[in-house]
Amino acid sequence: MGTMRGMPELGRGGAAAGAVLLAPAVLSGCVALDDPVYGDAGPPRWGPEDVPDLGTMLDEAEEAMSDRETFRADVVVEGGGDLQEWQDPLLDDAASVEFAVAGAVDASASDWRVSVDDDEVVEARVVDGSNYMSPSTVLTLVESALEEDPLTDPSDVDLGQIEDELDGRWVQDVFVRSTFDGFSLEGLVEGVHEELDGEDPSEIPGELRMTAGGYVYDYSGTGYDISFAAQGEPLLSRADYDEVRLELSGWDAQEVPEAPSEVVSEWELEEILMRGAGDSFGDGFGDGGGDPWGDEESVPAGR
Length: 303
Prior knowledge:
Layout: H1 17-27, H2 54-66, E1 70-78, H3 81-86, E2 96-104, E3 109-116, E4 119-127, E5 130-133, H4 135-148, H5 159-166, E6 170-172, H6 185-195, E7 207-211, E8 214-221, E9 224-229, E10 236-241, E11 244-249, E12 263-264, H7 266-277
Parallel strand pairs: 6-12
Antiparallel strand pairs: 1-2, 1-11, 2-3, 3-4, 4-5, 5-6, 7-8, 8-9, 9-10, 10-11
Helix pairs in contact: 4-5, 5-7
């Protein structure tokens, strides 16, 4: 799905006035690393004159992140080539798509929320290779499919009946069998290397910078801007690639999701849809003879 590496194939601001005034001195190496300006988080691991190159930092970060169990990733994809390549009706004329992913760092279990232009359209869960869609997401996808089906009058379909029959149950392994396959830290690190487009990371210098969330080590170049936490472990905190913005947070603060206790299978869902639609669906819509949702790979998610 475009250039969103590490996806299941995604701020700077002000600070206290005193800290802002002291920042230039800190970054020039004029303030001792144990100065109170660093707050409870403590001093940066490397001082402004000792910031490692990006290659070293990636190695350090990968080791630090591999010791964590859970995390949260917030990804924003601005309109353009990436969205067009997905070819999904939900993304027609979309200006941006946002992904919020929280769960295990090894991608074994995670919760997904996908929003298009600030409207949430997909709520999914991935657990041990199985995908689950929330009832509200199923209704959203049904409505989208109806709008795309020239042989079906949407007013003839009783969405309320479909919602009642789902009765809060999640739908398992339908729509996105090959789309939501996890969001792993290993994939993120590999994605950073790929986005460097042949640049040698050991030749890319970094700088110590202050942001609203604390000090970071920042690495910038053509088409990318990558930051790592400077206080504590050097965890990857942000990566911007052209139209893709990624922020990582909530290390070990997220719960590992479990599979829903009550689910609806593909065939059960088909029966529910047919009861809610009667004979109004066009040929191939929910009759087992075709995919009423289009290409599974086109569902708005990472790959």
